[in-house]
Amino acid sequence: PKGVINDWRKFKLESEDRDSLSLSKKEMLRQMSSPHRSFSKDDKDTRERFCRKMSMQEYELIHDEQEDESCLQKYRKRCMQDMHQRLSFGPKYGYLCELQNGEQFLEAIEKERKTTTVIVHIYEDGIKGCDALNNSLSCLAAEYATVKFCKIKASDTGAGDRFSTEVLPTLLVYKGGELLSNFISVSEQFNEEFFAADVEAFLNEYGLLPERELPALGNGNTDEQDVE
């Protein structure tokens, strides 16, 4: 697309090490930075020659084979960063939040954005699977920063009679204030020992997690596989 080509050309020109350029190339870049040179109506031939010359010079500059591959990798990384920034809107969390009472429980559900997924773990100390699930959710919270992960003791919800030890640990998933999923005795879905990857696979099976966050892209050199 024309817009992508123009963006690539601009990035290529901006990436040039101007100190290492010859005087002729520096002058060419100066001219390219102001491409809308004015010409009189009677100077049509001069304008056409200028445009043809600039087009050929620009082609030679931005298609330097020795430098193109490195510049292309940087361009790909920048595009990925821009795309990630556009898609990663909304609040970020990144940790497992401890709710202290029923009021905080309701606020965590009802006062979030309609686009935010809220996953709440109802637990109690000493209940099999609760500690492992809290550890797993702490790991997932760091990887899925746009998801709000919470935990609250059943006795602190104000509705402890509804969360007896027989149904713990329980996972409740909300979005837009609505309950999407209710998993009681959820640890029974896993092996005796389970980890964050097991819980992640389980939640993904029900489509409850977004796409995994892209890793931060540094400015240094990376292998080709890092940008493809």
Please, could you describe this protein's structure?
- 43% of the residues lie in helices and 12% in strands.
- It is an alpha/beta fold and 228 residues long.
- The chain has two domains: 73 residues, Orthogonal Bundle (Phosducin, domain 2); 110 residues, Glutaredoxin, CATH 3.40.30.
- The chain has a five-stranded mixed beta sheet with strand order 1-3-2-4-5.
- Strand 2, helix 6 and strand 3 form a beta-alpha-beta unit.
- The chain is elongated and about 80 Å long.
- The protein starts with a helix and ends in a 23-residue tail after the last helix.
- The C terminus is likely disordered.
Q: Layout of SSEs?
A:
Layout lengths: L1 H14 L7 H10 L11 H19 L2 H23 L8 E3 L3 H9 L6 E7 L6 H14 L4 E6 L16 E6 L2 E6 L12 H10 L23
Parallel strand pairs: 1-3, 2-3
Antiparallel strand pairs: 2-4, 4-5
Helix pairs in contact: 1-4, 2-3, 6-7
